[in-house]
Amino acid sequence: MIEMQGGEDLRYTNQLPDYALRFHRGLITVLGIISLGLLWLVLYFLFFDFFPVMAGFIFFVFAIMAFITRFSYYNLKQYTNLNIIKHLNHEGYYFYFKNKKTKEEIEEMITYNQMDQVIIGHTLRYIPNTSNAIRSPRIIGARIIIVWDNEGEKDFRIFDIEVQNQLDGWIDRIRFHGIPIYMTEKDVGSVPGDEYVNKFLGEGRDLEELTTPFRVGGRTTEKLEKY
Fold first, then answer.
1. For 81-152, where are the E strands, in sequence order?
2. Is the pLDDT of residue 160 over 90?
3. Is the Cβ–Cβ distance between 104 and 82 less than 8 Å?
């Protein structure tokens, strides 16, 4: 899973800072050198000293190190191959996506004039707890759903936030531009995208105008009611 970095001035990206990239690349290099050294020891004890027990033990350690190296390499590739930027700026909602491997590139700006309304609901993200999976705590977040006019049809863009001051920044900027904001305390995270029109814009929608602060960042062991 790729995490978005940043948040300053409501700008987010998946790109790691330069110091983090240098650290990860250095770590992968060191792990690779250690793995090659272990492989050389395996061959030495197996063919030159004929000590199969020692060779087997070192091969086991080599396999672990090689797995960690490979995992670290492909995990870093997720960030370097994909470039994602999401920014709620003073013109509207900007989205940029580029896959360096497939050459796919998307750039989109949804201006405030195109926005019809914004809907905010809760999400829950599990925090792994192997001691008691059923009672694992969950972080309460918010899903921001931007409803906009896409060539005469209603379309949606979503963004998830778990940090209170960042969510407050989104709400303040959206309100500044006069966009209606509606909310629900229910969990909207499981609503599929193709159901957004019926669920959030249909006659039976269960939403109210946002007039009080929308709280996120807390933890709970209870499930929220599904929207």
1. 82-88, 92-99, 104-111, 115-126, 138-150
2. yes
3. no
Helix, strand, or coil (residue 178): coil
82 pLDDT more than 90: no
Pairing of strands 92-99, 82-88: antiparallel
Q: What pLDDT is attached to residue 6?
A: 77
**Whole-angstrom distance, CA of residue 201 vs CA of residue 203:** 7
- Residue entry with tokens 């309100």: 175
| Phi, then psi, of 212 in degrees rounded to 5 | -120, 160
C-alpha angle 218-207-176 in degrees, rounded to nearest 5: 75
Interatomic CA distance for residues 13 and 97, integer angstroms: 10
**Per-residue model confidence (pLDDT) at position 94:** 96
- Cβ-Cβ contacts under 8 Å for 193 (sequence gap 6 or more): 156
Token couple for 19: 């110091």
